[in-house]
Amino acid sequence: MTKSIERTIKDQFAEFFEKKKWNIFKESADYYFETAAKIKTTDIMFGEENYKLLRRNVIKRLFIGIGCELLLKAIYLKNGYCINKKKQHFEGKYPFEIESIKKNDFKDDETLSFDQLISKLFTINNFEEQKKAIEKGLRISKVFRNKEGHVAINWHSYDPQNYRDIEQSII
How do the domains of the chain map onto residue ranges? Predict the structure, then answer.
């Protein structure tokens, strides 16, 4: 049977992520954060002039969301926890310590969703007094990533506190 094009492409990215890969995720997160921080309207080459600010802000929010997800995956890996999804037959609940599992019980072509990572974050690290701020900022960044990656609108309300909340969640 011939593989679908989706299956072929997913296989190109398939990997069971080991603890030592955490720094690749962290460096990628840093790239997205830095790009979001430094992008200017003059960097936007497409579209009418009056939409360049909008497009720049879309990229900022999208990259902040992607950066937060990659940073979260780096945190899991650095702390020795699996970010790959388990296969259906495998019993147990997340999070799983990489050293206590068999790679064959996990999918090498799928990782945990951003929501799953946020939900289980405080079982791998308490973060004590910062828990509420961390979760709030991560959930905002998740919405940024989802909305900017899946819909196109010409306007939405702006709340600068959203950006402060995200900043507080990742410092």
Answer: 17-170
